[in-house]
Amino acid sequence: MTLLFARAIFVAFPFFAVSPQESSSPAEPEPEVVAPTSDAAQAEDEESSTKPQALDLPTSTEEALQMRRGLDALLEGHSLEEIEELYAAWIVLVRGQASQLEAALSAPEGSPEHESLNQVRTDLDTLLAGADAIVEAMAEAGGQVEAARDQVEALRPDDRETLEGSTVPPNRQAALDLPVEVLKSQLRPLTQEQVSAQLDQWVDFLQRTCIEVRNVEVSALQTEDSGQVADLNARAVALRGERGSLIKRVNAVINALERKGGDVDAARAYVQSVVAEPPITGWRAAWATARAWLVDKEGGIDVAKRAGKAVAILLAFWFLSKALTKVARRATRSLPRASELLREFITTSVGRLTLLIGVIVALATLGINMTPLVAAIGAAGLVIGLALQGTLSNLASGLMIMIYRPFDIGDAVSVAGVTGKIHGMTLMTTSVKTFDNQAIHIPNNRIWGDVITNITANATRRVDMVFGISYADDVERAKGVLKGILDGHDKVLDDPAPVIRLHELADSSVNLIVRPWTKTADYWDVYWDVTEEVKRTFDREDISIPFPQRDVHLIPVPGAPSTADAPKPAGGELQPTRPRG
């Protein structure tokens, strides 16, 4: 550090670096010389400006634990000497924490030192992890770390010694007070041999409890005093509750041993053999049994708690589904190209899916295992798919309709031979209300696999009409009359302009096509109004609308009687002749 400081002074004040001869000459004034900074000095100056600050050495376990969070980044850029100083201070704190762990392990049950065992062990593990990080930083800086690593390993507690007695409480009451989830967490890091040793101790707790249950049950069966029988039955119910609680914990140990490859057949068979319930006779015994079950913390109280949690979860998810449905509806409204069918499907699906998740969570809270049900549904997926081919086809077609939106709710369509307005849609069917107010439900696969005509897809429509006049009428005059009718109708659009053309020279009429444009909603109003006005105007203008007619020419046949020889009636009209023969 002194050398670095001297070099910095040399760089900052270069006029100190003059020769002795120049400084001892009084006759010649000494000019102010600024020596150029060398590249090495400049690089060293930059390094000193970017070098991290000195490491703060922790003086307590709390400071070390707080420093551990960012220790890896804090160690970067420091010299080997600084890291070794930090290691020396850190290892002192590790020794102190290891001493606290030994004191907690040797402290009596229930003492404050023993109650803090888990916290002391956790803090020690954190400090040891920090020591490992410091040692690795020393190795990267080029230091010799073999001795440091051996020192850290010597301070590391033997997990087998600290874990062997941690999962089995000293007595049955402590065993009953140990939560099952805590027991599972304690068993997780143990080896197969360690869990097997734990299982023997837990089975011993269970066997002692079963012996007490047996003694009480035998006494209840042998006594004739009804009051004493009720008391004994109540005691038996309480003991059976404790036995059930112990069975849950023994099963947790058995499952842990089975996952680690141990033999659990004998232990599992023993547990199954001790769960038989003797018959309860007499109303007093029944009431005592029910009362004992109701006040048992793992009986009626546990069921009530689970039921309350399940109800609360259902209510919470119900309110959540309502909120998410509103959010989904607002979100889908911001999608400009999404159809109303897709918006409705998304909002409905969000609400129902949220409720389904709530039901699953509530059932799991009640203790119902949902894994077999999900596995059964997955295994039966192929069979269900084959059995519901038509349903799945409708489902896929419904999704395609919602995505590509050939129509929407309220559109007038012609699909699958049905014409009407779309009233609603599900994943399976589409509801169409015809113009005469009939409700028709069409499978989606028939709609998607057929031609779809959306009548109201566009804002405007062309009205196609044909009017015939006689050959004797003036075509231009008739076209002018038709144009006047269209110009006078307020619902006929000017753009696009109407089309009036001579379309066809038919057998008995000259047909003119009239094609005005109008808004889609005004289609039938224009069609009916124009048709009615054409009839009135043609009649008023003496323009005939001919009906189909045919000219018949009679060609005389040689040898056939002429019409002159035919008998005439008194009125002078010809009568048909009877065929000969």
Task: Give a structural overview.
This protein has 581 residues and is α+β, with helices and mostly antiparallel strands. 58% of the residues lie in helices and 9% in strands. The chain has 24 helices and ten strands. Strands 4-3-2-1-5 form a five-stranded antiparallel β-sheet. A three-stranded antiparallel β-sheet has the order 7-9-8, covered by helices on one side. Strand 1 and strand 2 form a beta hairpin. The longest helix has 34 residues. The protein is elongated.
What is this structure's SSE topology?
Blueprint: H1 2-12, H2 20-23, H3 39-50, H4 61-68, H5 71-74, H6 80-106, H7 112-115, H8 117-140, H9 146-155, H10 159-164, H11 172-177, H12 180-187, H13 192-222, H14 226-259, H15 265-273, H16 283-295, H17 300-333, H18 340-365, H19 371-379, H20 381-387, H21 389-404, E1 412-415, E2 418-425, E3 429-434, E4 439-443, H22 444-448, E5 452-454, E6 460-462, E7 465-469, H23 475-487, E8 499-505, E9 510-515, E10 517-519, H24 523-540
